[in-house]
Design brief:
It is a single chain. With about 350 residues, the protein is an alpha/beta fold. The chain folds into 2 domains: about 80 residues, Winged helix-like DNA-binding domain superfamily/Winged helix DNA-binding domain (Arc Repressor Mutant, subunit A, Orthogonal Bundle), CATH 1.10.10; about 240 residues, Rossmann fold, CATH 3.40.50. About 45% of the residues lie in helices and about 15% in strands. The chain has 16 helices and 11 strands. Strands 4, 5, 6, 7, 8, 9, 10 and 11 form an 8-stranded mixed sheet that branches. Strand 10 and strand 11 form a beta hairpin. Helix 4 packs across helix 5, helix 6 packs across helix 11 and helix 11 runs parallel beside helix 12. The longest helix is centred in the middle third of the chain and has 21 residues. The protein starts with a helix and ends with a strand.
Length: about 350
């Protein structure tokens, strides 16, 4: 690929994202199903015009999500299967959320956020991101589903990366619908769990825990982790929480965990850990970092950054373990300092 090709592909990236969004909204993968189908048949089932549908399907084939089996007839490629909402590894809600205008509009002001350090979302919408979600139940539910889908790989990898048998009760701080905690509890039947989040964040949790058969082993605790976290656990867990917040607020969350931590307890943090020097394959993590800048005011961090947060909260970072099955996430283990 030439330098020019690379730059053009990057500039067209926003168009590619909206093409994938259209595929989800039109249920393209579901309509094609397991066998190749003519574009005209897909269009008829979608209530669309045949010629524009053919153009969309060819674009999706060019992006690697479909294959043109023969002229005008398309099959779903392996990557396209992730757009089937019926699959356990589906990313349809993730696609909807991260192509949602509420996410994208603030990106139009990235240069302003870089100049000022201000959160563009707050300026565009007149409120912060999570308050905006709280006022829109449907969007909040979509966000919760997107976070659940984004957590599925980590929920599978985490039980193999840490010895949970040493502990009695784990509280998942900001745990949403319980996807991560369910993965841990399923693998360690001797554990009980507490799922802590706002009432909006917990909205889908009862059904998810029921589906996993964990209603009796996991309790819900609605609250605000900036005020406190539930006491009584010897292990506190959080995934993709600290990166949502600037350093002072991240320290507040960790300090509340430290306050609740009994002797011998641990705090587990699941986040990407930025390298000291950017590598060739780190692009998505740094785009996530900019997303934190424009939409919520947080950031991705290096190991040294996490060490500083833990120290300020009265914790000591014990280890950092990459999770190859859930890249780019690492498991950071912290204990009470001193």
């Amino acid at each position: 690929m030439t330098d020019r090709d690379l730059l053009v592909r990057l500039v067209f990236g926003g168009m590619a994202a909206q093409t994938v969004r259209a595929a989800v909204r039109l249920r393209i993968v579901e309509l094609i199903g397991d066998t190749p189908r003519p574009a005209a048949d897909v269009a008829a089932d979608a209530g669309a015009e045949p010629q524009p549908m053919t153009r969309l399907l060819r674009a999706l084939a060019g992006l690697g999500l479909l294959r043109e089996h023969s002229f005008g007839t398309f099959a779903v490629a392996p990557a396209g299967l992730l757009l089937d909402p019926g699959r356990p590894d589906s990313l349809t809600s993730f696609v909807r959320m991260f192509t949602e205008p509420a996410i994208i509009r603030a990106w139009e002001h990235l240069d302003d956020s870089v100049r000022t350090g201000d959160v563009a979302f707050d300026t565009v919408f007149g409120t912060d991101f999570f308050s905006h979600l709280a006022r829109q139940p449907e969007l909040s539910a979509e966000f919760n589903a997107a976070m659940s889908q984004a957590t599925a790989e980590t929920a599978t990898a985490l039980p193999h990366a840490f010895d949970f048998d040493r502990f009695r009760t784990v509280t998942d701080v900001g745990g949403g619908d319980g996807t991560l905690l369910a993965g841990v509890l399923a693998a360690f039947p001797g554990l009980t769990g507490v799922l802590h989040d706002t009432s909006e964040g917990l909205a889908q949790a009862p059904e998810n825990l029921r589906r996993h058969g964990l209603t009796e082993r996991c309790s819900l605790a609605a609250g605000d982790f900036f005020r406190s976290v539930p006491e009584g656990s010897d292990l506190y867990l959080m995934k993709s929480i600290l990166h949502d917040w600037p350093d002072d607020r991240a320290v507040t969350i960790l300090r509340h965990c430290r306050t609740a931590l009994p002797p011998g307890g641990r705090v587990l943090i699941l986040e990407p850990v930025l390298p000291e020097v950017v590598g060739a394959d780190d692009g998505n993590t740094y785009l996530s970092d900019l997303n934190m800048l424009v939409n919520v005011g947080g950031r991705e961090r290096t190991r040294a950054d996490f060490e500083a947060l833990c120290e300020a909260a009265g914790l000591s970072l014990v280890s950092v373990t990459p999770l190859p099955e859930a890249e780019p996430f690492s498991l950071l283990e912290a204990a009470a300092a001193g």
